């Protein structure tokens, strides 16, 4: 049986510390460290694109396997990039950013080690915070397990993006629209003027007509996934301005990715040497400004916020602009921004760079959730916030249905996804604060059942309702909470979708409380122990796979 760190004997803790220390030195033999840091970082991004293209060949662009590969690459490529910068040779302006078989071998070696080590980076912080239990299988091998029930694993799978394949909550895959003829013609026109500049590289002129033709589609995509108020201030710019910037940026990325693909098809050799877009910060700002109509100054601020920082950045989806050195050049692997949740990522960046601004916008998150529910549930009696006498917390959301004598009292919590495993306990606590708030509301209403009727929030006394539900409704991140008579947890999107589709509030809440909207192990996902090895020591951890 495994033990958490606080319950483990000293000898076991020392043995696990030894494994961690050994693994932390896995980078030392890498040939990557003999490269100039800017060449190493660029080459690692190229290697990431090469791995993405291999996944596309194997699974297709719409496959969940590709999405999983991009998430994993986005986490372990930065590990290798940091090795290149912290332990490699210093930056050199004369370094040749050219792709060669020898460089490919060097990168493949580094990414293979980083991929293995990335599992250590996840497991050990959770072990130190008593969130994982450990079992020593030998002096050089430790197995980590996430404590919890089958339901905990379902929630973990849901947060990882798994959804039911069957039943009333079955997920429907999005259909990729066919490319318009005019877009196909513009791509062909761009390639007509392209020049081969090496065995694995080519060059094309800036395709402004193509970018402008692609822009409306990407503006629609950005608006479709945005969930926050356009007027939200992110510092030097608003969310609306950020969305304009990002739509233009995506159009540029999409054009480059597809041009590389088509060139590779015609030449039977993917142009890895040209796969990464490299421009100076000033050039990026001017380019996106021209296409988006956002001022160069604001574009520069957005680029700064989206730039990778080797001291603390962790994810290429969040920080796609990667500095190559003091020359100001920023490299972009287009596959990562094209598969990112742009709004979520800029909020993550803002929470680190400008915590005061982020804290101020946090006060608006529950209001944004409430406004979205009001818009989506127009056929229901949705109220909130309902002011309560101090010190009782206000009710975030009140939904009643007279015909079934049903009342829902809900606390809304919108907590951004953790950037690293070490943040999970704090994010859990933010969400679970809603339990104590619901408890205080419940006690007040039981003591004064006429309060809401007197405030004209309900047509009758609180105690007259036959079915009363106290719900904690989080978004983006939440820990499992076993339902009780006093409270239950329902994820925001599952709650909203179910109430959109049904006219009967009571039966809908009862259905939601069966948790059929969670993926089922064995049907929608599987979990198995996988071994990762770094510098001669190994860990085993639970990995989730789509069935």
- β-strand percent reads 5-15%
Low-confidence stretches: none
User: Which class best fits the helix and strand makeup?
Assistant: alpha+beta
Question: What's the total helix number?
Answer: 18
Shape: globular
Largest sheet: 5 strands, mixed
Give the rounded overall mean pLDDT: 93
Radius of gyration: 26 Å
Strand arrangement across the biggest beta sheet? 8-9-10-11-12
Total number of strands = 14
The helix fraction, in percent, is: 40-55%
Report the end-to-end length measured between terminal Cα atoms.
28 Å
Describe this structure in words.
- The chain is an alpha+beta fold.
- 48% of the residues lie in helices and 14% in strands.
- The chain contains 18 helices and 14 strands.
- It has helices at 10-23, 37-59, 64-87, 101-128, 150-159, 181-192, 208-225, 239-267, 281-292, 296-305, 335-338, 342-353, 355-362, 365-376, 424-447, 451-454, 492-501, 505-512, and strands at 133-138, 141-145, 195-198, 201-203, 277-280, 322-323, 329-332, 381-383, 397-401, 406-414, 467-475, 488-489, 525-534, 537-546.
- A five-stranded mixed sheet has the order 8-9-10-11-12, with helices on both faces.
- A hairpin with a 2-residue loop joins strand 1 (133-138) and strand 2.
- Helix 2 (37-59) packs antiparallel against helix 3.
Structural descriptors:
547 residues; alpha+beta; five-stranded mixed β-sheet; four-stranded mixed β-sheet; 18 helices; 14 strands; globular
